[in-house]
Amino acid sequence: MFEARDLSTDLETVRESHAPGAVVLDCENDFETLGPERAETLGLFVESLEPRSYPESWVPSDAPELLRRYAGEPFTVGMPGDGGVTWTAQTTPPVVLVKARTAGSPDAFRDFLVAEALVEAGSGHPEHFLGFFGERYPNLAEATTLSPTDTYQLAVALYDAYLGLHTRETFREWADDLPRLHEAWRDAGDRLQPRLDGMSREVATGRTSFPAAAELACSGVKHGCDLPTPFGALDTEAYRDAGAEYAVRWAEKTFEQLADD
Question: InterPro entries of this UniProt entry (predicted)?
Answer without folding.
Answer: DUF7089
